[in-house]
Structure formats: structure tokens, C-alpha cells
Design a protein that fits this description.
Strand content: under 5%
Distance between the termini: 28 Å
Number of helices: 23
Order of helices and strands: HHHHHHHHHHHHHHHHHHHHHEEHH
Helix content: over 70%
Strand order of the largest sheet: 1-2
CATH class: Mainly Alpha
Number of strands: 2
Shape: globular
CATH architecture: Up-down Bundle
CATH topology: Growth Hormone, Chain: A
């Protein structure tokens, strides 16, 4: 190929060697693809709540199903990749991803919330295959000394898909579903059930459309990956004994605690991005579509910060930068809790600047020095995405409570619920602090 390898002045080794350049480009496109799925789905928690007249906790089961697929399939995906190859894992992931999207058709036709949850679960079983395959494959594309920067660079394209998903959620879903308030819907459901069911069906059809288009796009990408050759993915390169690998990984404290830190990070990210809509609606009387606009601003900040922080990794130790950003995220979360009105919302949006570096940096630190064990170690870090399965329902349950009174000082349940992301940032800062000496 005529392209030049991507290099950085801080090392004589290219971040992406020439032989991996095409593979890097095509695999990096998948980072945007799963970013799209994540962020078209986050606003659906608020959408399903209003359409189906369910509680915050019940609607948050969308996230439990979505991130539960990641958690459930992480180990099977790793075993599959160990037995076959990275490329086989990518193909399986794309197939499950497309199948989950297409399940939205019967779910919408039946108006069955449980089947929507199944569709989300199948989708993310596919995403689990994709991430378990793509992340360590990107790490393996060159010298280990540049692996964290290489993964951060690839991950920088993930938010581009996220922004696209957010825009589609706002403009093609939230802005188009019926604007009847929850209170009026409840009245209508009692006085005219047929009219209410017609509104529900129309709204669910609006949700189904973008997912079906996404399923077709993923099928097309599956065909492309089936036809291209990717270097360094043959099954002979990555076969390994599972139990000895697990024992070696467990013997590495920075890996074990990295899995824990990653669970806290994913939980914090999903809580901050999912419930910014409820924050805007409950605290500032915004519509769901208007609140989603601020979520898009948050993602824009996240994208910009990811590129900036990737550059800063040339000069700062990953653990130190991770710890500093986690402290910043904690301070801004306190602002979201204690500042009223727009300042609180701005603080919540600002958290995204601090989160931008966290996932790939924790990933790189945790897998540092694991060599071939990274293929299976990756599964533990994808399993940690289960934090996004457990924590949003916990926050939603707090939101369903009454306001919290501390003498004469009262905090709404929406604002106090962000104490959970605050705890997550404290855990991440601790992990970064104890890994300051490590260099990727």
C-alpha cells in the first residue's frame, strides 16, 4: 500500500506499522459501529418509559439487557476467538449484531417490551464478540510500547459513531414520537384504550425503523469482512490453554483491579449519558429531545477530549493522567448534585471531558505485559462492561424515590442519584494512582 505508517515523535517505533495499516483502518471502523449502537440506545430508556407508562427502574432494564449481553457473552467470545481467530470473532459479532437489530421488527409488531429486551441482549452479544476481538487485535498491531496509544487512537473514532447515534435518536426518534405527556397518556389509557394503543404502536414503529436500517448496514459490513484478509488473525497464532492463562492473569494485580476499575468506569459512563435526559426533564422541565441535545454536546466534548488526551499520553504516564481525570470527573459530578439549574447540567456535561480517556487507558494498563494472554484477558475487561448492566437500574431506583431531606436542605432524587457515578470516579482515581509507575 502507498500509505505511510502512522508514527509519533516520542518513539522510534511506528504506532501502526505499514503491514497493519489497512487492517487497522477497517477494524477501527467497527469502533464507530458499536459507539452508534450504544448511543442510539441510551435515550430509549426515557422513550420506553413514556410510551409504555413504566417506572424509571423498569425502563432502565433496556440498559440491563443491553449491557447484560456484553457480560454474558464475554467469556464464550474469548473461548471462541481462542479456538478460531480474531477474524472469526469479528464475523460472529457482526452476525449477532445484525440479528438483534432485525428482532426489533417482531418486537414492534407485538408491542412486547420483553422482546425488545431480547433484541438488545442479542445485539450486545454481538458487540461483545466485536470488542473482545477488536481491542486486543488493535493492541497486537505493532510494538507493545505503543499499544496504549494505538488503542486510544482507535477508540477516538468510537464517539463519532456515538454522536451519529445521538443525532438519529434525537431527530428521527425522540422528536417524532407523540408529544403527549405521561400524565395525559395515563388518562387516555383509561378513557380510550384503543386510541392509546394506536399511539403506542405508532411510537414503537418510529423506534423500530432506525434499528432495522442499522441491521441492514451491519449485514453489508459482515460481507465486506468475510471477503477481506486480515494479517495476524489465524487460529494457529492465538490458540492457548485456558486455565493456565486464567491463573497467570489472576496473578497480575493490575489486571484484576483493572477489570474492577473498568466496571466502575462503564457504570459511570452509562449513568451520566443515559440520565442526562432525566436530569434535564426533571430538574429543568425540558423535553426529551431538548435534553438529548445537551447529551450531544457532551459527546462532542468527549470526542475532542479523546484526541487531546491521546496526544497527552506522549508526555504523561497513563496511570497519572487517568487518576487526574477521574478526580476531575468526581468534582464535576459533585457540581451536578449540588448546583441547581443550568450550572448543574453544565457540570454533568463537563464530566464527559474527563471520561474520554478512561476506557482504553484502563484497558491498556490492565493488559500491559500479558502478551498472548491478552486474547483471553480481553474477555475479563469486556465482562466488566457488566457495570453498565447493574448500575443504571440502581440509579433509576433512586430516581423513583421521593426527594432526600437533610434538615432544611433538600436534594431531588434525580440529583442525589448521581452519587453513584461519584463513587465510580473515586474507584477509578484509586486505580490510576496505584498504577502511576506503569508505562504503556
Amino acid at each position: 500500500m502507498s500509505e505511510q505508517p502512522i508514527t509519533t515523535p516520542s518513539t522510534s517505533q511506528p504506532v501502526i506499522p505499514r503491514k497493519y495499516l489497512f487492517a487497522f483502518i477497517i477494524v477501527t471502523s467497527l469502533f464507530a459501529l458499536w459507539g452508534f449502537a450504544n448511543d442510539i440506545t441510551n435515550p430509549m430508556v426515557a422513550a420506553f418509559k413514556n410510551i409504555l407508562l413504566i417506572s424509571n427502574f423498569e425502563s432502565s432494564l433496556v440498559q440491563a439487557a443491553f449491557y447484560g449481553g456484553y457480560c454474558f457473552m464475554a467469556i464464550p467470545a474469548a473461548l471462541f476467538i481462542t479456538r478460531f481467530s480474531y477474524k472469526a470473532g469479528l464475523l460472529m459479532g457482526l452476525a449477532l449484531y445484525a440479528a438483534g437489530c432485525l428482532l426489533f421488527v417482531p418486537a414492534g409488531g407485538m408491542m412486547a417490551f420483553w422482546l425488545f429486551l431480547v433484541a438488545y441482549f442479542v445485539m450486545t452479544c454481538g458487540l461483545s464478540f466485536l470488542e473482545t476481538s477488536a481491542n486486543p487485535y488493535i493492541l497486537s498491531m505493532g510494538d507493545p510500547s505503543t499499544s496504549t496509544r494505538r488503542l486510544n487512537f482507535a477508540q477516538a473514532f468510537n464517539p463519532l459513531g456515538s454522536i451519529t447515534g445521538m443525532l438519529i435518536a434525537r431527530n428521527l426518534i425522540l422528536a417524532k414520537i407523540d408529544s403527549t405527556s405521561e400524565a395525559d397518556r395515563r388518562v387516555l389509557s383509561e378513557e380510550n384504550p384503543e386510541a392509546f394503543a394506536a399511539i403506542q404502536q405508532s411510537d414503537l414503529d418510529i423506534i423500530v425503523g432506525p434499528y432495522v436500517v442499522l441491521g441492514v448496514v451491519v449485514l453489508a459490513i459482515l460481507i465486506v469482512f468475510a471477503l477481506v484478509k486480515l494479517p495476524g488473525t489465524s487460529s494457529g497464532d492465538i490458540k492457548t490453554a485456558v486455565m493456565p492463562t486464567i491463573k497467570r492473569l489472576i496473578a497480575r494485580p493490575h489486571f484484576v483491579w483493572g477489570v474492577v476499575a473498568q466496571a466502575f468506569y462503564v457504570g459511570a459512563q452509562i449513568m451520566c449519558w443515559t440520565f442526562v435526559i432525566q436530569y434535564g426533564m426533571n430538574e429543568l422541565n425540558m423535553t426529551a429531545a431538548s435534553a438529548q441535545s445537551y447529551n450531544i454536546w457532551a459527546m462532542g466534548i468527549f470526542v475532542s477530549s479523546r484526541f487531546i488526551c491521546t496526544y497527552l499520553l506522549k508526555f504523561f504516564n497513563p496511570g497519572s493522567l487517568l487518576s487526574g481525570l477521574a478526580i476531575g470527573g468526581g468534582v464535576l459530578t459533585l457540581g451536578a448534585i449540588f448546583l441547581t439549574g443550568m450550572p448543574g447540567l453544565y457540570a454533568l456535561i463537563g464530566v464527559s471531558a474527563c471520561m474520554s480517556l478512561m476506557f482504553p487507558t484502563i484497558y491498556g494498563i490492565a493488559l500491559e505485559g500479558t502478551g498472548e494472554d491478552a486474547k483471553f484477558g480481553s474477555a475479563g475487561l469486556i465482562l466488566a462492561i457488566g457495570g453498565g448492566c447493574l448500575m443504571p437500574p440502581m440509579q433509576a431506583a433512586i430516581m423513583d424515590m421521593d426527594a432526600f431531606s437533610f434538615g432544611s436542605f433538600v436534594l431531588s432524587s434525580t440529583r442525589i442519584s448521581f452519587a453513584l457515578p461519584l463513587i465510580c470516579f473515586i474507584a477509578i482515581a484509586t486505580y490510576g494512582f496505584f498504577n502511576r509507575p506503569r508505562r504503556a
